[in-house]
Write a structure and sequence with these properties.
- Pathway: Amino-acid biosynthesis; L-lysine biosynthesis via DAP pathway; DL-2,6-diaminopimelate from LL-2,6-diaminopimelate: step 1/1.
- This protein folds into 2 domains: 130 residues, Diaminopimelate Epimerase, Chain A, domain 1 (Roll), CATH 3.10.310; 121 residues, Diaminopimelate Epimerase, Chain A, domain 1 (Roll).
- 16% of the residues lie in helices and 44% in strands.
- The chain contains 4 helices and 18 strands.
- It has an 18-stranded mixed β-sheet that branches.
- A hairpin with a 2-residue loop joins strand 12 and strand 13.
- The radius of gyration is 18 Å and the shape is globular.
- The termini are close together.
Length: 278
C-alpha cells in the first residue's frame, strides 16, 4: 500500500488513497504502523475514500486502533493531498466526515501548492447529552468533576467529536501526561473525550495543549482549537475570532455570529511518500 506522510502543525498521519472502502483490518494496521518505535510512526491513519455526498470521504483511525469521528488537522491534509495530486482542480473541496457530515474547504494555493486551508467546521454542539456528557444542560460551562482526587471545572463542546476544555494558569507547563488520560476516560464522558488545557493570553489569543482521545498527547488538534475558541467566547474571555496557539504552531479560528459555524484556518505539510506491506 502506498502512503503519504503528512502533518498539520505536527499532528501527523499516514494518508492512503485508492481504497474503495475502509480496510477491515484498519484498526490492527493503525496500531502496527503508527507505533513510533516499531512502525512508521503517526498519530493516526487517514483513508481518502469515494463519497456519494461530497468530493471525498475521510475516515480516520487513531494510533490505538479506534476510529475518530472528525479531525481538523487531517481534513486539511486531505485537501492538500487531493489538490496537489490533481484529483480535484477546484480550490473549493467538499469532504464527508463521520462526525460532522459534509464539510466545505477553501484552499489558498501558490503555483499548484496548497499553502493554507479554511475549513467550515459546522456548528458547535453545546447540549450536554449530545456532546455527549452525563449532564442534561446546555451549555456545559465550568462543570465541576473530580479525577484521582483532583477537582477540575470543565466546559464541554462537540465539533463532531467530544471535547473537554479546562482553563489553567500555564498550559505549557501543565502536567498533561498525568491528567490527560484520567480525564479522557472520566465517567462524565460516556464516549470518552479529547482534553484541552487552555490559558488565555489576550482577547485575540489562547495557548492550548491537548490530550487526544485515542492518540494521547499530540502537537496540535484542529477540532480542539475550534472547541477551545467556542468555550472561550461562551465564557467571555475572547473575541469571536482568535489565534489558538498549540505546540506545533498556530491556528486562526472564527465563530461566525450569523451562521453559527466555526471556521478554522491553517496549513498542512507533506513529509514523504512510501509504501508498506499489510
Amino acid at each position: 500500500m502506498e502512503f503519504t506522510k503528512m502533518h498539520g502543525l505536527g499532528n501527523d498521519f499516514l494518508v492512503f488513497y485508492g481504497e474503495k472502502a475502509l480496510p477491515k483490518e484498519a484498526s490492527y494496521l493503525a496500531q502496527k504502523w503508527c507505533n513510533r518505535n516499531f512502525g512508521i510512526g503517526a498519530d493516526g491513519l487517514v483513508f481518502i475514500l469515494p463519497s456519494e455526498q461530497a468530493d471525498f470521504n475521510m475516515r480516520i483511525i487513531n494510533s490505538d486502533g479506534t476510529e475518530a469521528e472528525q479531525c481538523g488537522n487531517a481534513i486539511r491534509c486531505v485537501c492538500k493531498y487531493v489538490y496537489e495530486k490533481g484529483y480535484v482542480r477546484s480550490e473549493r473541496v467538499t469532504i464527508e466526515t463521520l462526525g460532522a457530515g459534509v464539510q466545505q474547504a477553501v484552499l489558498q494555493t501558490d503555483s499548484g501548492v496548497v499553502t493554507s486551508v479554511r475549513i467550515d467546521m459546522g456548528e458547535p454542539i453545546l447540549a450536554g447529552r449530545a456532546i455527549p456528557t452525563k449532564l442534561d444542560a446546555s451549555p456545559v460551562l465550568d462543570w465541576p468533576i473530580e479525577a484521582a482526587g483532583q477537582k477540575f471545572n470543565v466546559t464541554a463542546v462537540s465539533m463532531g467529536n467530544p471535547h473537554c476544555i479546562i482553563y489553567v494558569e500555564d498550559a505549557a507547563s501543565f502536567d498533561l501526561n498525568t491528567w490527560g488520560p484520567r480525564l479522557e476516560t472520566h465517567l462524565f464522558f460516556p464516549q470518552k473525550t479529547n482534553v484541552e488545557f487552555a490559558t488565555i493570553i489576550s482577547r485575540n489569543r489562547v495557548e492550548m495543549r491537548v490530550w487526544e482521545r485515542g492518540a494521547g498527547a499530540t502537537l496540535a488538534c484542529g477540532t480542539g482549537a475550534c472547541a477551545t475558541l467556542v468555550s472561550s467566547v461562551l465564557h467571555g474571555y475572547t473575541n469571536r475570532a482568535a489565534w489558538i496557539g498549540l505546540p506545533g504552531g498556530d491556528l486562526f479560528v472564527e465563530w461566525d455570529e450569523v451562521d453559527n459555524h466555526v471556521y478554522m484556518n491553517g496549513p498542512a505539510e507533506t513529509v514523504y511518500e512510501g509504501s508498506v506491506n499489510r
